[in-house]
Amino acid sequence: MDSLLLSGLEESIAPPAPDNEIDPKEITKMPRGRRPKAAPAPKKFERREALKNRIVGLSEELTGAGFTDLLIPLVPIRPVASEVVDEKTSARIGHVEETLAVYLQRTSIKDNLSQRPPFDHVTDPIYRRLMRDFIQGAQMPEARIAALRDLSGRIKSLDETGINYSIIDGLQRSWCYSTTVLIALHRDQLVTDRCITVEAWDYFRPFIEKLGDPETAARTMLSRTIRYEIYYNIDLEGLLHYMVTFNTAQRRMSLQVQLEIMRKPLIDEIEAAASIKVFRDSLDIEATGKTQKPRDQFAASDIAVAAEAFITNNAQTSQKEIAEDLLEKDSGYTATGVDFGDIADVVYMLKRVAQDIHPLVLLIYTDEPGKKFYFSGGGTFLTGFAAACGYVRNRNNMKMLEGALEKLILLLKQPNEDPLGLDEYQDLIKNITSSRGKMMRRLVYDTFLRFFLGTTTRLEWTDAYRSLSLT
């Protein structure tokens, strides 16, 4: 009895639960709902973008975190030995030794001209080991840096002011340098911040923790001396030469990216003048996170090939041939490679394709994905078409080509479910088993050429195919 009274007394004098706490007795009264869903893991490109933003702001972050003694004001570069002169480009090349802290201030992973986009280094086995070794004190291979005026102009001396530094070769290594510093400083917080994976942190953790607490570990790496090559007295022409050569000699650069770099001035001019939305592998894959271009957009490399096919009226123009030809030429990459009149004509042709023909094809074949993207979806169809346009222009004149394109547009506007005869075209190309790309380009070229010259009143794919079979 006494125990019951005592129990009741204790209960009566117990202080009420604070407003911000739940009375344990009320837990059983609360409805049992579904647990809130955990936030989905970030996609690879989202994680890479988050990490990139941290890397871009790393110097400012380190300044605010008390590392100003290592982030000293930049002084002119002093090579450790006499420079050598590259007789091809007239560039002067020297070796530099600086602390990582100074290197990260001097360079940036942003604003580097036309390099392949970075990828997921913390999950790539090769780069992950490279970062692990650097954390342990290993030296990375030397990067190559260009000293430029406004990212394009030639400077004569490293003592000049207003120098911009662009990474010619070593963008991936520079990304890794910054990543290791961030991991040392923030550790598993980078997982919470959706910059790296749990697996990546587990991999680096034992090596990072051996360097001590976060500040000590970051200071250890920022104080390390690294070596790199500096290139100056170099212009955009020389920069592109080195960029293609160095990157191709190592982890091979795709032909698409090579053409984007080597034909950049021409592609830029066509894109602006013809108002074409151009997709660049070297830029847009990083920006959008998509590994492939949208099918309704034109690839920069396809634009470059189409321009060459038009000017030479050669349906067999290919990415590989253009890239190899440019590598062998002494005229360089910054020249468009064609005269002003040729560029104007290329722009006119591609503008009519992008603004008039392509939209009509998308509309006509709106419910047929296998047909609607022939002009933008790949190089074969566009190359053959551009070569046929080039033949009309070269053998006659631009007035004739303008009339030919108007004739095609009128054909597309007729009440016809398949004005391009793509059912017929698709049935025929099933029979092409050898030299497929070459034969398809020739079929497109011959069929459009006959139509443009008035030999046929519609696209007679079968007749053109029979002629090809006889040759």
Which secondary-structure class do the elements indicate? alpha/beta
Give the amount of beta strand, in percent. 5-15%
Biggest sheet, strands in spatial order?
Answer: 1-2-5-3-4
Figure out the total of helices. 23
Low-confidence stretches: 1-22, 24-31, 330-338
Largest beta-sheet characterization: 5 strands, mixed
Overall pLDDT metric: 82
First-last Cα distance? 114 Å
Work out the radius of gyration. 31 Å
Number of self-contained structural domains: 2
Which range best describes the helical content: under 10%, 10-25%, 25-40%, 40-55%, 55-70% or over 70%? 40-55%
Would you count the extended β strands for me? 7
**SSE order, as H and E?**
HHHHEEHHEEHHHHEHHHEHEHHHHHHHHH
Write down the overall geometry. Answer: elongated
Summarize the structure.
Helix 19 crosses helix 20. The protein has helices spanning about 1-15, 25, 45-55, 60-65, 100-105, 125-135, 170-185, 190, 200-210, 215-220, 235-250, 255-260, 265-275, 280-290, 300-310, 320-330, 340-365, 370, 380-395, 400-410, 420-430, 435-450, 460-470, and strands at about 85, 90-100, 145-150, 165-170, 225-230, 280, 300. The chain is built from 23 helices and seven strands.
Describe it.
The chain has a 5-stranded mixed β-sheet with strand order 1-2-5-3-4. The chain has a two-stranded parallel sheet with strand order 6-7. The chain has helices at about 1-15, 25, 45-55, 60-65, 100-105, 125-135, 170-185, 190, 200-210, 215-220, 235-250, 255-260, 265-275, 280-290, 300-310, 320-330, 340-365, 370, 380-395, 400-410, 420-430, 435-450, 460-470, and strands spanning about 85, 90-100, 145-150, 165-170, 225-230, 280, 300. Helix 6 crosses helix 7, helix 19 packs across helix 20 and helix 22 (about 435-450) crosses helix 23 (about 460-470). It has 2 domains: about 45-245, no CATH class; about 255-470, no CATH class. It is elongated and about 80 Å long. Helices cover about 55% and strands about 10% of the residues. Residues about 1-20, about 25-30 and about 330-340 have low confidence and may be disordered. With about 475 residues, the protein is of the alpha/beta class.
